[in-house]
Amino acid sequence: MSDPILPRIRPEIAALPPYRQGKQAGADAFKLSSNENPFDPLPQVAEALAAATPVNRYPDATAGALRERLGERHGVGPDAVHVASGSVSILYQFVSAAATVGDEVIYAWRSFEAYPGLPLVSGATGVPVPLASGARHDLDVMAAAVTDRTRVIIVCTPNNPTGPVVTSAEFAAFLAKVPQDVLVLLDEAYAEFVTAPDAVDGLAERVYEDHPNVVVLRTFSKAYGLAGLRVGYAIGNPRVLDAARTTAIPLSVTSAAERAAIVSLDAEDELRARVDVIVERRAVLVDGLRAQGWDVPDAQGNFVWLPTGADTMSVAAVFDEAGLIVRPFDGDGIRISVGEHESVEKVLRAAESVVRTLHR
Ligand SMILES: *Cc1c(COP(=O)(O)O)cnc(C)c1O
């Protein structure tokens, strides 16, 4: 039988590999491939889910209660907050609102896997700028890459998957060079895990006030442990946020997600204590790996980066064999999430067993 004729798709889309999730862990394996929170949901969250608005009703399209709460938390009005089904959605909303055919979107590379797809889907051109030494953003080169076609620049801090932050001073110097009509998305998905005192904090520093072209993105998926519910938010100038509100798919944030996020904000101290535990485990991992001889960059998120280069897939197989699901990026390196207490020793043992076999 001949192949059926399929509908015509834009060639640049047809050429893309469809999204593949990090491997699901077997019963006794640790899933350290998606930077999830290893702790069980708080009991309050489970209760809030059970009590959420009847599911035959649509949610509040504006997520008004959560925007109000986030506004109070960060000292802005509710219109300066935009909530969506994960901050990845917000990235798509902004890029599709700001950039199309002929326009350019600058981002660091290697960085978050979702970035290259953003300009591609909106028809724009992606401009990846290689990381500088230490696996850090090269903001000077990123600023120099701006042309009159640039519409969006994405800055990821701490950088997923390599770990280092952008400092306040670096970000300020960068903004001084970027034209005011270029949208800068400051992706702070891992902000809660940062311990570096000089790291930029777009919300605490209120960078969007002096620079209305900057929008700060945060998520409940990582530190708050709600990855499965899909809630993220942006804070910035209300008129700039309108662009994302316009391209958002309406009613994507469910009442359950909104309730769970509010309850989590109420339990911030409890969740912060969990973050502290993750940060302690991160330090054990980084120190242990460096003592073994690994060249681990500064780790400021809930993950560590092993620069395994050409050995990436064979090293990933060793972790896999040890019951550790990690995220390999072929030819580049391996990202390992900071997970359950027992996973830390296992990661260190597996890493030690391969470190001497690496090709330098
Ligand atoms: C995880 C992550 C996000 C957000 O994920 P959502 O679950 O969609 O909120 C955004 N940016 C980076 C860099 C991430 O790693």
From TrEMBL:
> Which residues carry the post-translational modification N6-(pyridoxal phosphate)lysine, per the record?
K222
The UniProt catalytic activity note for this protein reads:
an aromatic L-alpha-amino acid + 2-oxoglutarate = an aromatic oxo-acid + L-glutamate
Question: Known EC number(s)?
Answer: 2.6.1.57
Would you say which domain of life the source belongs to?
Answer: Bacteria
InterPro entries annotated for this entry? Aminotrans_II_pyridoxalP_BS, Aminotransferase_I/II_large, ArAT, HistidinolP_aminotransfase, PyrdxlP-dep_Trfase, PyrdxlP-dep_Trfase_major, PyrdxlP-dep_Trfase_small
Tell me the keywords, alphabetical order. Aminotransferase, Pyridoxal phosphate, Transferase
* Requisite cofactors: pyridoxal 5'-phosphate
GO MF term list: histidinol-phosphate transaminase activity
**First-tier enzyme category under EC:** transferase
Which residues belong to any copy of the Aminotransferase class I/classII large domain? 29-350
Task: Please explain the role this protein plays, according to its UniProt record.
Answer: Aminotransferase that catalyzes the conversion of aromatic amino acids and 2-oxoglutarate into corresponding aromatic oxo acids and L-glutamate.
The record's note on quaternary structure and interaction partners says: Homodimer.
Tell me the protein family, please: Belongs to the class-II pyridoxal-phosphate-dependent aminotransferase family.
The protein's name in its UniProt record:
Aromatic amino acid aminotransferase
From what organism does this protein derive?
Answer: Microbacterium resistens
